Amino acid sequence: MLKKDLFGYWILAIGYCLVIVSWSLVIPIVVFAKDAKEPNVAGAFYPKDAGELASDVRLYLDNARGVKTEGKPAVLIVPHAGYVYSGPVAAYGFKAVEGKTYETVVIMGPSHYFPFHGASVYAQGDFRTPLGLLDIDAAAASTLLASGKGLIVDEESYFEQEHSIEVELPFLQAVLKPGFKILPVLVGDMNYDECLKLASLLAGLSAGRNMLVVVSTDLSHYKTYREAEDYDARTAAFLKDFDTKGLWDAVAYTGWNVCGIRPLIAGMEYARQIGAKKCSILKQANSGDTAGGKDRVVGYLSAVLDIPRSEPGAEVQGVSATQNDTGDSMLTQADKKRLLEIARETIAAHVAGKPLPVFHESDPGLNLKRGCFVTLRENGNLRGCIGLFSSDEPLYRSVQSMAVASSSQDYRFSPVRPQELKDITIEISVLSDPALVDDWKKVRLGTDGVIVRRGYSSGVFLPQVATETGWNLETFLGELCSQKAGLPSDCYKDPGTKIYTFQAEVFSEEESAR
Question: Which NCBIfam families match (predicted)?
């Protein structure tokens, strides 16, 4: 009898040990799963059941008919209310990118529950929806946090109750090809200039990266149906005109409701900086049209801001954008002088708070459709530098836009003050399209600008950087990798790293004065 009891105790003890071992194997899995951000509003703003959610999203998308885009979508503007209210409108925006491939999708939405200054990035892990997990682009988040110190923060707690980003995710999962990563950016309180700085940070992040920006915002809040129609129509007019300052002055701190005004301003300015020329309003309605009464409604809008497609045959691969096929410059000395004058007059007016001068130029060189950078130096030191790699605008207009941006929107510097103008010199770089090279040794120091990219990290140097620093090729590429891309300094030798070169015709006020 005693032997039987002892045997039973041994069996029981072994059983407890097995239970303990099994739990020790499970616990790490549970802890690891905490990296996933669980949904806040599944079952409230949209269905919690995966099958029901997928069916609803598909129905909204199928009902969004006639959506066409003329170029490459760079920014989507979509609403973020409960699906029964805003889903029929949001579907039009997401329909514009259905079947497309992006590597990084930045989703910017306003913070509804936590007041804070700046923008908060969810920097690592995953976001979970009933349709599955979406990976955070940790490399892009790291780049944004490093470049946006003072404006961008890493604070996950701000996302705890927020819905403005979450409700866009199931639509993205339904329309985009798999493989993309997301970068959630929650926007708190910012002034207008800080919104422009955020735009410049995103523009820098997008260099060499196939990136889509989704702006999450509703429009008018709790007005009558007719009042909402009036307010929202005027908001749409500002969007079509890319008039960020006009929209800001009309909306911010007034009774004209656009809850995501700050991410909206940043998204519009970002689109302009990377070459978007058109804002197409795809659908506009309010809750009185979808699933509510007409006494107190909320307005919704879907829009796409796209980059024009390059004209066939407009560029010759490997030939400078400012040269013809014989290698001769297509910009005359008079063209260069005029572009510098346009930049100078524009900056002088802008920093003085005056209306920008209006130019009408007919010379062929000034009407080339080329990317450009405008660089400002004060007593020889860098004071601002912003540009576009491509543009569908005449060159003189692109130079004017970049002159404004370099003097007031480079996040590394404060805006230029009028008293500084006498000490500032202007340099303009007119660019060719980037071309992929198969060997880093083919980079021509002082001739080629370079974009280096590995995974989701990238960096850019203009051609003149090599001349100004005196670096040899390996130092030039090593500094590009480490300084600009945040990669190991020798990563340019890795076959998995992509290297693009472009050329630039560079001219400055200093040269023209000689």
Answer: AmmeMemoSam_A, AmmeMemoSam_B, TIGR00296 family protein
pTM above 0.90, yes or no: no
Instruction: Assign residue 273 the CATH number of its domain.
Output: 3.40.830.10
**DSSP reduced 3-state for 321:** coil
Q: Which domain holds residue 378?
A: 333-512
HEC string of 135-164 equals EECHHHHHHHHHHCCCCEECCHHHHCCCCC
Q: Kindly report, residue by residue over 351-403, the tens digit of the pLDDT.
A: 998 888 889 888 888 988 888 899 999 998 999 988 887 777 889 999 999 99
| pLDDT tens digits for range 317-358 | 222 334 433 344 568 899 999 999 999 999 999 999 888 888
Q: What CATH number is associated with residue 452? A: 3.30.700.20
Q: In this structure, what are the phi and psi dihedrals at residue 200, rounded to the nearest 5 degrees?
A: -65, -40
Q: Is 315 within a domain?
A: no
Structural domain tally of the chain? 2
The CA distances from residue 28 to 22, 35, 128, 135, in Å, are: 11, 12, 19, 20
Which residue among 259, 291, 308 closes a domain?
308
Q: Summarize the chain as % helix, strand, coil (round to 5).
A: 40, 25, 35
First to last CA, the chain: 111
Say yes or no: 204 and 56 in one domain: yes
**CA distance readout (Å), 387 to 53, 89, 204, 290, 320:** 42, 34, 10, 42, 17
